[in-house]
Design a protein that fits this description.
alpha+beta; seven-stranded mixed beta sheet; 36 helices; 33 strands; globular
């Protein structure tokens, strides 16, 4: 337990050694009206024009009166209270994007600028200092958003609802196919979108045979004479593969069917007719943020694919191609995604879909499942079970071995891709295809494959390398026994100097191996292994190499890292599992304590961090989003559970901090040059701390497999044996495995972000969300022949999407199949409190709490706060106190306050988007404000102050001293202040979360805050290791954390709770440039870039590849991937 002597600095207080108190007294003067401006404007992730700053004063209440009224439940009555800080928080200028917004189209949101000496065209800077740099030639599509909306669309035919006889029957059919399972929202849409539609006539649907219409739509293939703009259809093609037979020639085996669509038809149809195509980007650019002379040179921003190095480089290449016509050349950016998924929790039904996304579309739109940006290209067939019978029949030596079946799976996958990469696609890849795009401009589009997102088993299948072989990475040739050197110089050299390339030598090796197999050699024969084993190649002809090698495309550059499977369900899951093993080694009490701690952590945000209800140590049915929540809350939860005498606790806390730090940087939606430097250094630190963890912790604590792991191992062993074997059931000793591909992949993120944009642009999470839609299709079938019936449903749904979009003439944000549901955007004002609340009679309420220290100074502090606000300030100054006469001049109408359950705070994020925090009085009640700490007073400055909201209030007030003054609404928050624990080292350099505690001084512990000064909500986690206390207020107080247990001694400020919060603590957010005049974190953040002393070779030499078989050493990764295929994981893979 930390001693009471620890210093806590209250907001607006200073140390006073002579008086023996560590608290700064109130500020010396009344705060004048600041020039702060609050968040304004609709939700957009960029701006077109300069934003206007709005004063955060009492006039904000006038704007808020127009908001929706919320009736406050009576249960919140006892929570109401107020506070007035002793010194005003620092004014903040959290600018919001302009109402013009920014879409991903080619239009320029900046004013035209001059050409630079390098030949690039630069736009003028916007209010955030952002400008674009274009490489000529600039295509005719470089028009403004308003011009784009006024441009004529491609010629439209007369309204046609074929095969529906009229609009009434179409509306009903569209409602039916609009979603997989009906809900209340669908019922509402039925009433408003169909039955009450002005053109709906009940008699028009009499006698309509909807089943016959469904059959026609299922057979729809490309355009018809009824409507030339209908979406393309599906084809069904059988595939043949060559099955190797030992000591015999390979035999041909036919797989039933590949369901697929023509890729070129998808490209032409999407760019010409899809509603989202009107906002596609055809002219790539690089984005920069202007810096002052003292801040250094302008900084490059990395976000969208069409601002990345790869897109700009390809665009410049196609501009150099010979011109065959006058059409402007542009790229159709292809981003593929594939993965197998179970369609139901029970049974064998599964689907292996291939999705196509277009990188010309903004990732913010593309990532929304409701935007329907995923284009279903193919449903891959799985290897049928009867192939084992075929091999046994043809082979005279043995049954089908696992190596032969794995070879057949590779052959089947690439046979399918050879069908997809047809001659038409290859011709367009070289020469382009002419398309009249949705914005009215005719272009010559060149398809370019930029990324292929998949989990590791699918990556090795597509890259035609061996699963967990000697060189397991699909991007470089690192040896498996060198993977543990993550972040070391040798590791970086391998990534840059030994990259995989599709060379003539590689193709010749594969061809020789295929010739040996054709001559009767086995797939894993010595002759084949001698050719391929060194680079972990396999004897399968790669479809991408066959089609694209001749035109200089390196297939291995497609396979980007996968944050969801490689970190959330990979490295972090493995580390968390090993921590549970260590706790089991300490004792079952430690595991129970961990479960209890997690259950006591409050949720945060709109499902950013969810409530932990189950025992986290059991890890039952946890999806990736659950493991992410466990990580973000892990430091306080594990703190103190391990012995501090042997430094184990410190080592584990360091590892947890650097895991959170790396994860936050890797998931940023907008990177800068400096954040990429931090990510690169964080990768180096992560490798160092994990190696230290293995080397030191494993020597002090012997860990064994958990009961869950032991049971799983027993099941696997029993499954692999004909008869049960009776043996001594002993637990297996376990260590943290650092020799996995997933750990190695963490070193490729910086290069991939520079090349393709930020991680969520090519994350597998986007495809996992599309799986939900496929499973909705499955529910509409009779549960037979999944690929055929789902393909038919996809035809019907795409038809309704297309006709509905034409009917409504809307853009992509209104093209949802459901109808006209718009996104609910945060309000333009900084905050919002409902017009009406639960009335609270002030004298009666105070009389009912006569001995509560929380309300002792409530009335006087409230009047002081109101006086300061009426005088034009926001906070009262303690050195110029108000007199009783001043307080008597304040009139509160009917002595009545109004209590509210919610406060909505809108803010601008680091990536220029508008978000909203909801503050309530139960489990999301903590706020942060800008601090005003003077470093000359001997206090290490911290940028924020923290408080717990006890009441969300408003009252009608006026100043009696002002003649004919009118009643005015005033809103305020009653808060309990937190102060920093100055004896606890925290921050980026210390690798610890900030620790705060309640201010002990009775008068300064509570106060009032103007809601306009709230930056946003904050996530506080109890410092469980320090326990609870009753030193400050009794448990029965209205302000106590718990009526039964009292207050927590300390809290930790979770700077990792979301990406915007993380960037506020780094001070590097491009959207936060108006928040701070100077970066208050500069010194501490820079410490992360300082070179650490070389750890030497001792630790690296201590980490050797476990002396196990190759398959056994990969058990951990195999188990992780098998979790991904479980229905409980695939159903809900939403990350914050």
């Amino acid at each position: 337990m930390v001693q009471n002597s620890g210093m806590r600095i209250k907001p607006g207080s200073s140390t006073n050694a002579s008086q023996g108190t560590p608290y700064r007294r109130p500020g010396a003067q009344l705060a004048k009206t600041p020039s702060a401006s609050t968040d304004q404007g609709p939700s957009r992730h960029q701006t077109d024009d300069a934003s206007v700053a709005y004063p955060a004063d009492v006039e904000m209440a006038d704007a808020e009166r127009e908001e929706q009224v919320l009736i406050v439940p009576e249960s919140t009555l006892r929570q109401t209270q107020v506070t007035a800080p002793s010194r005003p928080p620092r004014p903040f200028n959290d600018h919001s994007p302009s109402s013009a917004g920014f879409f991903a189209e080619t239009s320029d949101r900046h004013r035209a600028g001059d050409s630079s000496p390098s030949g690039t065209l630069q736009t003028a800077t916007d209010d955030f200092g952002i400008y674009r740099s274009y490489k000529p030639p600039i295509t005719p599509s470089q028009v403004s958003r308003s011009d784009l909306e006024e441009a004529e669309s491609p010629p439209q035919t007369t309204r046609s609802f074929w095969p529906y006889p009229n609009i009434s029957s179409f509306l009903l059919g569209n409602w039916f196919w609009g979603s997989g399972g009906k809900s209340r929202a669908d019922r509402e849409n039925l009433v408003k979108g169909v039955l009450l539609h002005p053109e709906f006539v009940v008699n028009d649907i009499r006698g309509v045979n909807f089943n016959a219409i469904d059959d026609k739509l299922a057979l729809l293939n490309d355009a018809t004479e009824h409507d030339p703009a209908l979406p393309d259809g599906w084809s069904k093609t059988p595939l043949q593969i060559s099955v190797p037979i030992t000591r015999s020639k390979p035999q041909t085996f036919t797989v039933s069917a590949l369901h697929h669509r023509n890729i070129m038809n998808i490209i032409r149809d999407t760019f010409r007719n899809h509603p989202s195509a009107r906002s596609f980007c055809y002219q790539p650019y690089r984005e920069f943020q202007k810096k002052t002379t003292t801040q250094g040179k302008d900084e490059r921003l990395f976000g969208e694919l069409y601002t990345s190095d790869a897109f700009n480089s390809e665009h410049e290449k196609i501009q150099q191609l010979p011109c065959v016509d006058s059409y402007p050349k542009a790229i159709a950016a292809l981003m593929f995604w594939s993965d197998s998924t179970h369609l139901a929790q029970f049974g064998q039904a599964k689907l292996w879909p291939l999705y196509l996304y277009f990188g010309n579309q903004s990732k913010y739109e593309r990532g929304r499942p409701t935007s329907h940006s995923a284009h279903h290209v193919a449903y891959f067939p799985s290897l049928p079970d009867n192939i084992k019978d075929f091999i046994s029949t043809e082979s005279t030596t043995s049954a089908a071995r696992p190596a032969v079946l794995a070879h057949c799976r590779r052959e089947l996958m690439h046979a399918a891709w050879k069908k997809l990469l047809d001659p038409e696609f290859i011709f367009a890849y070289e020469h382009g295809t002419v398309v009249q795009c949705a914005d009215g401009v005719t272009r010559r589009l060149f398809p370019r494959i930029f990324t292929y997102s998949a989990d590791y088993p699918e990556k090795v299948l597509l890259a035609t390398i061996r699963d967990l072989g000697k060189c397991p990475c699909p991007r470089c040739l690192i040896k498996k026994d060198k993977i543990a050197a993550l972040g070391a110089q040798s590791d970086c050299e391998v990534r840059t100097q030994s990259q995989r390339e599709d060379t003539r030598s590689r193709r010749e090796k594969v061809q020789k191996a295929q010739d040996l197999i054709a001559a009767g050699q086995g797939v894993t024969s010595t002759a084949v292994e001698n050719l391929l084993a060194d680079e972990s190649l396999v004897p399968t002809e790669n479809a991408f190499s066959t089609s694209l090698y001749a035109i200089g495309v390196n297939l291995f550059s497609f396979f980007v890292p996968d944050l969801l499977h490689e970190f959330d369900l990979g490295v972090w899951k493995s580390f968390f599992t090993h921590l549970i093993r260590l706790l089991n080694a300490i004792g079952t009490w430690a595991v129970g304590e961990l479960d209890m701690r997690y259950r006591q952590i409050d949720p945060f945000g709109r499902e950013t961090i969810r409530k932990f209800d189950a025992n986290v140590s059991e890890m039952k049915k946890l999806a990736a989003r659950d493991f992410e929540d466990l990580l973000l809350s892990s430091m306080p939860a594990f703190d103190g559970l391990f012995s501090s005498e042997s430094d184990i606790n410190e080592i584990i806390q360091d590892c947890l901090f650097i895991l959170c730090y790396w994860h936050a940087l890797a998931k940023l939606r907008l990177h800068t040059e400096r954040t990429l430097e931090l990510l690169e250094k964080a990768t180096e630190d992560l490798g160092f701390h994990l190696r230290r963890f293995v080397a030191q912790v494993s020597q002090k604590i012997v860990a064994y497999e958990t009961p869950k792991e032991k049971a799983a191992r027993s099941r696997r062993r029993a499954k692999g044996k004909q008869q049960p074997v009776i043996e001594k059931d002993e637990r297996k000793e376990k260590t943290f495995n650092m020799f996995t591909y997933k750990l190695h992949a963490l070193g490729d993120y910086v290069a991939s972000i520079r090349l393709f944009g930020t991680t969520e642009s090519w994350s597998t999470q986007t495809g996992e969300l599309e799986h939900r839609r496929v499973k909705g299709f499955w529910k509409r079938t009779n549960f037979r022949d999944a690929p055929t019936q789902i393909a038919a449903t996809d035809r019907r749904v795409r038809y309704h999407e297309r006709v509905l979009a034409k009917l409504k003439g809307s853009d992509s944000k209104r093209s949802s199949v459901k109808g006209s549901h718009e996104d609910v955007q945060p309000s333009e004002v900084h905050h919002r409190i409902a017009d009406r609340g639960e009335p609270l009679d002030l004298p009666s309420w105070l009389k009912g709490l006569p001995h509560d220290p929380a309300t002792k100074h409530f009335h006087s502090q409230l009047l002081d706060h109101i006086l300061a606000r009426l005088a034009g300030g926001h906070y009262e100054g303690k050195d110029t106190p108000f007199t009783d006469a001043d307080r008597n001049s304040v009139a509160i109408r009917n002595n009545r306050l109004f209590n509210h359950p919610l406060l909505r705070v809108n803010y601008t994020t680091y990536d220029f988007r508008r978000e909203q925090d909801i503050i309530n009085l139960s489990n999301k009640r903590d706020i942060m404000l800008l601090a005003d700490e003077d470093p000359t007073e001997g206090v290490i400055p911290h940028p924020f102050w923290y408080a717990r909201v006890l009441g969300i209030l408003h009252a009608d007030v006026k100043d009696r001293r002002v003649r004919n003054s009118a009643w005015q609404r005033m809103e305020f928050l009653w808060v309990r202040w937190f102060g920093r624990d100055m004896d606890y080292p925290a921050g980026w350099r210390a690798k610890r979360l900030d620790r705060i505690g309640y201010v002990p001084d009775e008068e300064d512990a509570f106060g009032f805050v103007d809601p306009a000064w709230v930056v946003r909500g904050v996530h506080l986690i109890p410092a469980f290791a320090e326990g609870r206390t009753e030193k400050y207020i009794p448990k029965a107080s209205i302000a106590s954390d718990s009526e039964l247990l009292g207050d927590w001694e300390f809290y930790h400020v979770n700077r990792f709770c979301d990406r915007d919060m993380f960037m506020r603590f780094t001070g590097l957010g491009p959207g936060h440039v108006h928040l701070f005049a100077d970066n208050p974190f500069g010194i501490d953040v820079q410490a992360n870039l300082e070179h650490r002393e070389d750890e030497g070779h001792s630790v690296l030499e201590a980490l050797v590849l476990p002396a196990e078989s190759e398959s056994e050493s990969g058990d951990e990764e195999t188990d992780l991937e098998s979790d991904d295929l479980g229905p409980e994981s695939e159903e809900e893979l939403i990350l914050s």
